[in-house]
């Protein structure tokens, strides 16, 4: 697993042993970021200088990819101990400690936070954690009113309605949906 593009292109990332963490594959991340950059609702302004939230961060590949491509800051939420170790190691490998905050927390029970314009949610498949996290993140101030939310689920899972659907793509076992936050903060 590596950073696909940007300042840290080619930088190798580590992941914890075992099957507890399911990092987003390089090719899926490449396709996702291509979509974010080239869609009519996306573009460079979506990433450059953005505040990003990478919830269910695992190895941090999505958030680190965003930093590599120009995001200003990423907050990573992860609760699993092994994944937290890999996440912190990957942030250090990218020399991104000044641009990253790691919260050892459950994204469905987050602390109050600052509004982010780009949200990555990559929860364990089949547990309906995405919609629960979106509700909790809205309630605690993490989602800007027009935030772009990227949700990765299992391909066979029904896409939950969490805002205005902008795009949906299948990649192997994964389904990636992109939403615009439709709820008002608070």
Automatic annotation (TrEMBL):
E.C. code: 2.1.1.171
Cited PROSITE patterns: N6_MTASE
GO MF annotations, alphabetized: 16S rRNA (guanine(966)-N(2))-methyltransferase activity; nucleic acid binding
Top EC class for this record: transferase
Positions of transmembrane segments: none
Keywords on record: Methyltransferase, Transferase
CDD domains for this protein: AdoMet_MTases
Source species, domain of life: Bacteria
Official protein name in the record: 16S rRNA (Guanine(966)-N(2))-methyltransferase RsmD
Biological classification of the source: Bacteria, Pseudomonadati, Pseudomonadota, Alphaproteobacteria, Acetobacterales
């Amino acid at each position: 697993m590596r950073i696909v593009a940007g300042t840290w292109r080619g930088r190798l990332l580590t992941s914890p042993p075992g099957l507890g963490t399911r990092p987003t594959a390089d090719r899926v991340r490449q396709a996702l970021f291509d979509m974010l950059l080239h869609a009519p609702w996306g573009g460079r302004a979506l990433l450059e200088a953005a505040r990003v939230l990478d919830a269910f961060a695992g190895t941090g590949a999505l958030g680190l990819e965003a930093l590599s491509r120009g995001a200003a800051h990423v907050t990573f939420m992860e609760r699993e101990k092994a994944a937290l170790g890999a996440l912190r190691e990957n942030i250090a490998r990218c020399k991104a400690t000044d641009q990253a905050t790691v919260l050892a927390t459950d994204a469905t029970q987050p602390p109050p936070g600052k509004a982010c314009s780009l949200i990555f949610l990559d929860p364990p498949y089949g547990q309906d954690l995405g919609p629960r996290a979106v509700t909790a993140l809205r309630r605690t101030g993490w989602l800007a009113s027009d935030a772009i939310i990227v949700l990765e689920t299992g391909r066979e899972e029904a896409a939950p309605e969490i805002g205005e659907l902008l795009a949906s793509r299948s990649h192997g076992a994964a389904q990636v949906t992109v939403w615009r936050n439709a709820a008002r903060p608070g």
